[in-house]
């Protein structure tokens, strides 16, 4: 073997591949041998150009070079491809490897073929053609995905693949770059390498970035607040101004399109607002998003109310409330539209700030009454909405329950009598009623249950419900109120959910004649929607209510408040009567007290100082109120005797 390798050594110095190839055992060896020969040939040609043409040595020297040797890089790889398995099985096997193919394309500068092969090697077959990313399982190994991601970025940096800023964002090559980066970014999510995700995501085009980061932010909801905040800081570092758009889009998407049962996804919808609370510059978005969530949760069941408490007491940080108070103080001492508060509109900000505080008061009361009702059940199981038998409650427990209950009653009366969630003097007062568009994403549930206003029966399954029946009932009710609005009901993306929409009827938009809508008609439409939610819209729907996931009234905040008041005020009236019923059953009641009578007079507007609140109640709720008041009256008569 020694002479063979000695000959190969000398052969490599003079470009004689006939002596070098016999000792080559790999693809790399053969390519090196041919490349070395090509180099020697180039050196010979350069020296020959310096020798005078008349020199005899020039011709002798050139003529002695071996013939049949590749003279270009393309010819080298053609020669390598011509070697069959009988000559070198290892070379043939190695020649088809991704690593060798990439080297070949880079050497000969065949970048088009390189990119075509990357598409085949890295992407799932469903992503081989241009279009949306399918998230199919990639055939490549993690190391290959990482190499491919770096390679396409390197080619883009060199200008071989034009950057997306040059107006070719959706070209074939840019499609490949985005998909390769998406594949690797998804792999980083799967392997929990969260610190690296924004580094690669920053190179995606906006549409791909949005899609990928919606998945990533949703994935991060499973981790601790520390991890989430770290993720947010890194995103700000690499994604810059895109962070605000991405977090707002994610929170809105979760609020509107959360999958699964509405009651079960409530907590997730509330916690998604965390992404808007990590820095003060996002607090305006957090305020508007929280208002939308509070409205949605007010029309849900028990878990929605618990999620609202989580949102207002835990998700929104202390710094948010301090910021709100500071701007409210500044706004109350500023000329209208002078402050840069919310799109340069002080009035809009003050209205939003007032509403979020109204909702905080509302949900704090709901949280307190839930705890009080639970305490009643712990102290004595007989104390409840059906049989409040207080005779077995000890005096000390009765005093504790009574003291807390009376405080709750005062708090409830305060919400009933003052302008809670007022609908007057809103910044959208200029919006015409005829321009109204209302959209609700909801599901059908059993009729609202619980005299104390807990909400809907959890996990109810409504059989035989048809969307057409609901649509007909809504339109009949709207027609009876003047026909200013028309409703439609259609199935949503999930099997159990559907969309209810309300818009101006044909002819109402002109604002003339009997079809012209006004504020009274707007409130009437809100009552009809409220009755549908509460399960008393028609005889066919008397046992079916609606559990609302999302309410969207566009820029018409007044309509949002009308609908929420329709739901919340009726619940509050029932809760007041329920508290009265429980208090009347406890030992130690004052036989001469007229508080109960005064409450009833206030609800029906009989004392002359307040409006009749029974118009908020559906027929089913009126029945509940009468039954609870009857029980309370019987208890009071019994205590006097």
Q: What topology does this entry show?
A:
Layout: H1 2-14, H2 17-20, H3 27-50, H4 56-63, H5 73-81, H6 89-95, H7 98-108, H8 111-122, H9 142-158, H10 172-190, H11 197-201, H12 206-220, H13 225-239, H14 242-257, H15 266-271, H16 283-298, H17 302-315, H18 318-332, H19 346-379, H20 395-417, E1 437-446, H21 467-480, E2 485-491, E3 497-504, H22 519-534, E4 544-552, H23 557-585, H24 595-604, H25 619-640
Antiparallel strand pairs: 1-3, 1-4, 2-3
Helix pairs in contact: 3-5, 7-8, 8-10, 9-10, 10-12, 12-14, 14-16, 16-17, 16-19, 17-19, 18-19, 19-20, 20-23, 21-22, 22-23, 23-24, 23-25
What does this protein structure show overall?
This protein has 641 residues and is mostly helical. It has helices spanning 2-14, 17-20, 27-50, 56-63, 73-81, 89-95, 98-108, 111-122, 142-158, 172-190, 197-201, 206-220, 225-239, 242-257, 266-271, 283-298, 302-315, 318-332, 346-379, 395-417, 467-480, 519-534, 557-585, 595-604, 619-640, and strands spanning 437-446, 485-491, 497-504, 544-552. The chain is built from 25 helices and four strands. The protein has a four-stranded antiparallel sheet. The radius of gyration is 38 Å and the shape is elongated. The N and C termini lie far apart (123 Å).
């Amino acid at each position: 073997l020694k002479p063979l390798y000695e000959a190969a050594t000398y052969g490599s110095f003079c470009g004689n591949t006939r002596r070098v190839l016999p000792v080559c055992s790999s693809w790399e060896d053969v390519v090196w041998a041919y490349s070395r020969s090509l180099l020697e040939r180039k050196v010979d040609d350069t020296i020959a150009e310096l020798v005078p043409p008349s020199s005899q040595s020039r011709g002798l020297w050139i003529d002695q070079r071996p013939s049949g040797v590749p003279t270009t890089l393309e010819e080298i790889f053609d020669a390598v491809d011509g070697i069959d398995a009988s000559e070198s099985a290892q070379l043939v096997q190695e020649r088809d490897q991704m690593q060798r193919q990439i080297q070949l394309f880079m050497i000969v500068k065949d970048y088009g073929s390189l990119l075509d092969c990357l598409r085949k090697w890295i992407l799932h077959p469903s992503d081989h053609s241009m279009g949306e990313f399918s998230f199919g399982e990639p055939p490549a190994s993690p190391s290959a995905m990482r190499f491919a991601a770096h390679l396409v970025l390197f080619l883009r940096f060199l200008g071989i693949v034009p950057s997306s800023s040059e107006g070719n964002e959706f070209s074939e090559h840019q499609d490949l770059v985005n998909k390769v980066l998406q594949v690797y970014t998804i792999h980083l999510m799967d392997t929990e390498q969260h610190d690296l995700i924004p580094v690669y995501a920053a190179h995606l085009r906006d549409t791909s970035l949005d899609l990928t980061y919606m998945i990533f932010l949703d994935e991060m909801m499973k981790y601790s607040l520390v991890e989430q905040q770290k993720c947010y800081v890194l995103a700000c570092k690499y994604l810059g101004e895109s962070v605000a758009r991405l977090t707002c889009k994610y929170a809105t998407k979760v609020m509107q399109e959360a999958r699964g049962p509405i009651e079960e996804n409530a907590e997730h919808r509330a916690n998604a607002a965390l992404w808007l609370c990590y820095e003060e510059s996002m607090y305006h978005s957090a305020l508007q998003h929280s208002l939308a969530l509070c409205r949605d949760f007010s029309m849900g069941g028990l878990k929605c109310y618990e999620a609202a408490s989580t949102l207002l007491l835990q998700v929104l940080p202390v710094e948010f409330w301090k910021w709100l108070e500071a701007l409210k103080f500044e706004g109350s001492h500023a000329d209208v539209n002078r402050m840069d508060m919310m799109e340069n509109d002080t009035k809009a900000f003050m209205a939003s700030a007032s509403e979020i505080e109204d909702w905080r008061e509302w949900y704090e009361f709901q949280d307190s009454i839930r705890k009080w009702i639970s305490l009643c059940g712990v102290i004595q199981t007989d104390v409840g909405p059906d049989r409040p038998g207080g005779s077995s409650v000890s005096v000390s427990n009765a005093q504790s329950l009574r003291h807390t209950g009376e405080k709750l009653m005062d708090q409830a009366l305060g919400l009933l009598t003052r302008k809670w969630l007022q609908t007057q003097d809103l910044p959208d007062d200029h919006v015409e009623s005829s321009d109204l568009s209302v959209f609700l994403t909801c599901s059908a549930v059993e009729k609202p249950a619980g005299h104390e206003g807990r909400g809907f029966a959890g996990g109810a399954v409504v059989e035989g419900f048809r969307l057409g029946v609901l649509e007909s009932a809504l339109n009949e009710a709207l027609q009876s109120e003047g026909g200013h609005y028309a409703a439609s009901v259609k199935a949503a993306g999930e099997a159990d959910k559907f969309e209810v929409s309300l818009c101006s009827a044909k002819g109402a938009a002109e604002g003339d004649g009997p079809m012209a809508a006004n504020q009274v008609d707007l409130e009437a439409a809100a009552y009809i929607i409220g009755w549908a939610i509460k399960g008393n819209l028609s005889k066919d729907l008397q046992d079916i209510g609606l559990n609302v996931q999302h309410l969207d009234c566009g820029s018409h905040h007044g309509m949002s408040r009308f609908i929420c008041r329709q739901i919340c005020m009726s619940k509050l009236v029932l809760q007041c009567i329920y508290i009265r019923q429980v208090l009347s059953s406890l030992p130690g009641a004052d036989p001469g007290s007229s508080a109960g009578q005064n409450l009833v007079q206030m609800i029906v507007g009989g004392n002359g100082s307040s409006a009749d609140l029974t118009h908020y109640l559906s027929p089913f709720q009126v029945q509940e109120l009468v039954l609870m008041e009857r029980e309370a009256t019987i208890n009071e008569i019994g205590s006097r005797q």
